[in-house]
Please model this.
Amino acid sequence: MNATFALAGATFGEAIRKRILLVILLAALVILLISPAFEPFAGRGQRTLVISFGFGIIQLAGTFIAIIMCTGLIPTEIERRTIYTILSKPVQRYQFVLGKLLGAIATLGFVYLTMGLMFLLITRWTLGEFDPKIVQGLIMFFFQSSLLAAVTLFFSTFVSPLVNYFLSGGVFLMGNLMSTFLDTIQRNPEVTPLTRIPVQILTVLLPNFANFNIQNPIINPEQVLTDEVAYLVQTIAYAVIYMVLLLVASILIFNQREM
Amino acid sequence: MSDYAIKTVNLTKRYSGLWSKTPVEAVKKLNLEVHRGEIFGFLGPNGAGKTTTIKVLLGIIYPTEGEAYVLGKPAGDPSNHYNLSYLPENPYFYDYMTGEEILTFYARLFGIPEPDRTKRVRELLDRVGLSRAANQPIRTYSKGMQQRIGLAQCLLNDPQLLILDEPTAGLDPIAHIDIRDMILDLRAQGKTLFISSHQLSDVERVCDRVAILNRGEMVKLGKLEELLSGGHVELIAEKVNEGVLEPIRNLGGRASLHDGRLIVEQPDDGTIDRVIDLVRSSGGHVISVKPYRRTLEDLFVETIQGGNRQ
Amino acid sequence: MKKRSTGLLIAVVALLVVQAGLQMRVFPLWQKNYAPKTATPVGLSPEQLLVAVAGFREFMAGILWVRADGFFDSGNYDAVLPMLRLVTWLDPHNLDVYATGAWHMGYNFTDEAQRSDRRYLLPALKFLEEGIQNNPNVWDLYFEMGWMYYHKIQDPVNAVPWMYKANEFENIIPARRHMLAHALFKSSQFDQAVNTWGRLLLDAEKERTKDWESLNLYDVRQKNLEDTILDILRRYGPNAETQPPIDMGFDAKVTVVRPRVILVEGTLNIPTIGARVTVILRNKGQKLDYTPKALETFTLEVDPNLTYMQDSLAVRDMKFRREIDMSKDPKMYSFKAPEYEVEFIFDPRYASPNIQDRIGSDGVGMTDRRYLDTSDPSARMLRKVVTITREEILMLRRGAE
Ligand SMILES: Nc1ncnc2c1ncn2[C@@H]1O[C@H](COP(=O)(O)OP(=O)(O)OP(=O)(O)O)[C@@H](O)[C@H]1O
Ligand SMILES: [Mg+2]
Model:
């Protein structure tokens, strides 16, 4: 376990020094900071603008950081041969993959913590209130990005980084839209089972990213929610289970892999 | 089997490219036996298959056919990795870390607990002469310093077997000597060293045995003295009679005579005494007798040219 | 030595099944509580969709709404409607868009201050209804809907159920509750109106000492209750001031003075000033039905061949007269149909209080030999309909009356 944490630590240390990730994070922080200035463009109240825009920026930055970071995690180690000194130590391949994933999650944690603090400060400052629901929303987006990181890491065990950008990006979009799409299909009586069933299967197999977006009732607090805690717990459990699934699949492929 | 630090049986590795139809056979039916406690030179030109063999031994890649054993266990067995170390060719490390941090990182991979870890890291930094640079990021290290960090990470676990891939590549002559001394020092501690190289001068003097690999096949294997035996002795004499030329040639060497000056290239098999006798008895005057031993370089070039001619 | 992978493979399959089960549990909950309630994403380009999916729905909606507002101001209504669709698709919880959008449609799609294009009333109602479906847990849009019926359509009977609905919410602005009582009164449900004032007064009494505002609210409700009871007593009690009924002598006629310009004039024998007569010009037989039942068949489209102009004429010295110019806006007045009808209405429910004191808000104190209309149970009205052909309006043939 110590080895796994050492690897996670090294991954974190390297990721937070990566220039492109820092640039994205910094840009997100700056945009968050000036977001109240966009008020004249928003037809709705300041609350809606600041919260919806803030969540949008944070989710976007989290998504890009997760994908850009994780496409490189394993291929870079192979390319510059650092992986040889690691795998020649008493480190199992699963530990290596797990370490990478934990490091990526830790990095996302750091990224979300920074952006989240900035966001809370901005909401506090412009709206004069501290809404604990914002923290909930941030946590869910953090799990969304972590799941996306696991997806990207999984692909990185067998495709090149460039292909991975599109694959992971595609899965993220699909995972955001599929279930809504399926819902529309199911309501349409004209759709034959020949179309419906494959879509249904695909929807159930793909990671569902839409579940993590709970910003809607935070922006529109008048909505009445039921089973809120159960929902949050189950969604987090879903994220963890899917991440374990991707981790095991990554290990499965990585074990066979030659470098 | 446990007498061998490394043993391979008909080890074959084919790389099958995804796009190319003909696979590259990087190692062909290799049978290697490396004894414990020896320095084994694993030699061959670029592309011979040295690194490929080492990766199989480490379990980073898997053999296509045949078997490989390391320290008595199948190659890649995780428990082996506590007792062996590997220095890749042109090693690269997380360069944002300092020398001390990277060694601590590797020590954690070995599972060395505190406070031993810190002690061991300090010790090794001292041993490879990097104590003063310990808190600089590796990014600022010279090539030689990086190679020394590489050696230090090899020694963290006090291994029984060290596998060094081109340990002197890209280093200046002084650094060569440093590393050679360290290798000798390690053998004195009873460790097995498996050193791959295509440069000869620095390992020539320290290897107990060498294997020469060409295009994936082992073309020569043996004790260094044996492989290098069979040099020649050159004799130069003056005032030599025409009459002795024939008896001397009959002893098996090559001889030439111009204006009473004789040059003989005699095999190094003790017959040189008879040549000297013959020269003396004919009233000749021996000016010099010089033995020419074969160098590893000669052997290397001879074997590989022989192999390539086939 | 390659690793055995059967175990891992089994684990992957098992986890796939587990996640699928969990996903099928979680997603319906998400849809119920967290999904943006979307209408069909018609007319949305992929990039817009992408930006929207990326989490900037509300932001995008905000930008579009600001632009839509600009189009309202410049009167570019054809551009406004699709934009409103987009805004509400992106951000279906923006009450402001629904309320303001419906208000613009219902009130501002006109060619002159008093004169309005009633075709847009249906989309306005439909738009509000959709807003209510997307935001069933806030009072605002129920109230807006009620207000639309009460004030713009002048149909207090259909306003009442919406006002009741809005009144069910705890957090409705207190003064807005009064509209229920007003709507009840106008629809001649006098008992219910008094009851409602009484209940509101009791509510206000509990909190009257809280602050100045609460005390004021109490005073207002008390005065309203007293006035309502007094009005009822004066108009319908013993020796009611509304009796005997007066003959209104109602009449009206239409003259085409130039092509697409008509002169409407008539008489109404009301002794006090401030009475107004409503005039409507529409395709013959195409009376609009705004009732909630008809709402189901509404669309947001307006029929370009339909004309539905409504104006309000002031009565002075018992006469009314107005020239209505319909030559400027062919979108509103296409004049494609062969026949049109001009309807004149006097509705006592929306008359001023001094008039109501004489004839009653339900019209009990008025009568007319020719045009008294008693079909609406909530009030007696005066109504005259004149048919006019396309040729007459366009003056293609001489001889309009
Ligand atoms: N991953 C790979 N895929 C395909 N072919 C490979 C791969 N790695 C090595 N080879 C090929 O296998 C052969 C042996 O390569 P290897 O790296 O083992 O040689 P080497 O003896 O270490 O050479 P050098 O002295 O240059 O390090 C070469 O022909 C090389 O092109
Ligand atoms: Mg090599």
